[in-house]
């Protein structure tokens, strides 16, 4: 098949769509990617990239067509709006005309915001190429959960945008079954829907770590890695670290990543005097993460307390399961259900600093063999549900159905 992927984000930015493109290429398909200039999550263009270039390159044997966009900057609302709108504008007017030949199917990779699927829909209209929308976030619910806006006009406007999007694609792939009710309510009942979960990259599979030398981390290190944004409930993590500093033995918190609240985190660590208990590290390439995870006592996953976040499953959960480490989680809903079903860790509700401190204490006091049992159970659940090969085969089947439309 000849497959077009349209995504605002692509390598060297770290998103699941990178591995999807590579996997489809390795399975014999011709893949072309239309994307923007990389600047996530720092808000600055990656080294070697700028507003106007490069406009094309090769990645793992695939053609990558890039369009200008305005970088995210410091992540303020107006900067993010310009970033999103600029991609839609430049991808539609300057990216689509540069595509050559016909495609059997198009994948619109859709983390927030959903408007980034618009270029794929425009291409569908003119070239009759069927489109699969891979939903990573639920709109408009995610927008209002993060911004806390209650603006009635925005609610109506975004609902209309979501309905228009759902009605002009051919398949909707949901990263969790919890999206289904909202998708149906916004007009997705007339579109083929499928549960297509995220996976963990093979490099996170602890079965492949024999030759990896673990980083030297302090005892009882708990690792939080990924985007540092408002949706991750990091205020709770800081409050918990403040409470748990007097635990004997005390946990050590390792936070790895970039994002809109990183400066706030650094300031809180300084103001609260937590420098001896929290290590704040910059974003690491995915290839380096197994060294950190191998040395971790447990992996942390937290989220903010909003109904929409209870519907999602953060992709860091799949990586944590694959790592074979116990999971400490302040979550609810579908994500909590995965951890409970996998029997791989300890849970408390979101924004419950005291509860999180208590389960951290329980893990530290747990005998080593019990910790290892939790890790093995999570790893087995990953093998059964979230391997890349399993999900890519499902995607290949769905694309085959699109081709026959």
Given the structure, what is the number of helices?
Answer: 14
What is the name of the CATH superfamily of the largest domain?
Glycogen Phosphorylase B
| Overall pLDDT level | 91
Report the strand count: 14
Please trace the helix and strand order, writing H or E for each element.
Answer: EHEEEHEHEHHEHEEHEHEHEHEHEHHH
Question: Helical amount among residues, as a percent range?
Answer: 25-40%
The structure class reads alpha/beta
**CATH fold field value of the largest domain:** Rossmann fold
The largest pleated sheet is described as: 8 strands, mixed
Provide the spatial order of strands within the biggest beta sheet. Answer: 3-4-2-1-5-6-7-8
Which regions have little confidence, pLDDT < 50, spanning 5+ residues?
none
Tell the overall outline: globular
Please identify the top-level CATH class of the largest domain. Alpha Beta
Description:
The chain is of the alpha/beta class and 405 residues long. It folds into two domains: 215 residues, Rossmann fold (3-Layer(aba) Sandwich); 184 residues, Glycogen Phosphorylase B (Rossmann fold, 3-Layer(aba) Sandwich), CATH 3.40.50.2000. It contains 14 helices and 14 strands. It has an eight-stranded mixed beta sheet, with helices on both faces. Helix 8 links the parallel strand 10 and strand 11. The longest helix is centred in the N-terminal third of the chain and has 19 residues. The chain is globular, with a radius of gyration of 21 Å.
